[in-house]
Amino acid sequence: MRGYPSVKEMNDDQRIGIVKDIFASVTDKYDFLNRFLSLRRDVAWRKSTVSEMNYFQTYRFLDVATGTGELALDCANTYESVKVTGVDFVQEMVDNGIEKVQTQGLENRVDLKFGDGTNLEFDDNSFDVAAIAFGIRNIPDKIKALSEMKRVIVDNGQVMALELTTPTPGLWRNFYGFYLNGILPKLAKWFTKNPAAYEYLADSIMNFPTRKEFVSLMESVGLKNCKAIPLTFGICTLYIGEKQV
Ligand SMILES: C[S@@+](CC[C@H](N)C(=O)[O-])C[C@H]1O[C@@H](n2cnc3c(N)ncnc32)[C@H](O)[C@@H]1O
After folding, report:
1. 171 alpha carbon to ligand 1 midpoint, in Å?
2. Residues linked to residue 160 through DSSP beta bridges, in sequence order
3. What is the tens place of the pLDDT at every residue in 193-211?
4. CB atoms within 10 A of CB 106
5. Mean pLDDT throughout 101-127?
């Protein structure tokens, strides 16, 4: 059975290797465990994200770290005139997503492919919206990823990051910490061959920047009107910023 060092002890290259290992090993159970461990909140959180999107020029959406394509598909099913591209650097996740695109008959509007969120292959000003759902936590160079998302969107376009966060200190935060560290890895053990992945999940959530810190990161790459919308008592947060010249 695998074991990973704590997030604080990993260097950036180690972390990238561990993230690739984790997602390649949990692909087949990924969607099921998301629904189960979040009590289907993940579905509602992505829907909230999609409902905040604004299409006005290119009618194109970029889903960074698309994984199994959940946000990409949500977007395509909500906005019928929008073309969607999703990139992820774990081919197993992309392949799983492509199967879902085919099952839903959306091949003409949804293109999922291999790609690195810190080095996007797209021209400047190619999309109205670039979003990342539950991915920015796993990217050590968050500034690079946010800058790349900003680069590829048009003026007045949106950069969005949906991420698991910790509630403000208090009873609820204590309970949530207990769930993340004590209960979640045990539940995951029943269903996946790599339960250490869910210890990493807890660790990475607890070590993610606070809302204020993450909004500052977005501002530091030049995004404007940045805001953080807490969801489900703050266990998830939707961050939105705009590109303005
Ligand atoms: C928790 S999953 C989220 C998947 C999907 N966005 C969702 O909403 O379910 C995180 C994904 O981020 C991907 N990822 C992490 N770092 C990446 C990077 N630098 N470039 C592309 N994908 C990355 C992983 O391979 C994994 O599929």
Report:
1. 31
2. 131, 240
3. 777 887 888 888 888 999 9
4. 17
5. 98
CA 189 to ligand 1 center in whole angstroms: 21
How would you classify the pairing of strands 83-88 and 110-114? parallel
Residue for token pair 């074991």: 3
- Residue ranges lining ligand 1, Cβ < 6 Å: 19, 23, 65-67, 70-71, 87-90, 93, 116-118, 133-135, 138-139
- E strand or H helix at 202: helix 196-206
pLDDT at 85: 98
Choose which residue among 49, 88, 236 to substitute to test ligand 1 binding: the one with the highest number of ligand atoms within 8 A of its C-beta: 88
- How buried is residue 51: exposed, middle or buried, by Cβ count under 10 Å (0-12/13-18/19+)? exposed
Domains belonging to the chain, first-starting first, are 38-163+209-242 (3.40.50.150)
Which of the residue ranges 6-10, 60-64, 99-103, 138-142 would you say has the lowest mean pLDDT? 6-10
Q: What atom of ligand 1 comes closest to residue 34's alpha carbon?
A: 9
Q: pTM here?
A: 0.94
Q: How confident is the model at residue 102 (pLDDT cuts 50, 70, 90)?
A: very high
Give residue 170 CA to ligand 1 midpoint distance, Å: 30
Q: Whose CA is nearest to atom 10 of ligand 1?
A: 135
Residues facing residue 127 across a β-bridge: 153
Question: Regarding predicted confidence, which is higher, 245 or 243?
Answer: 243
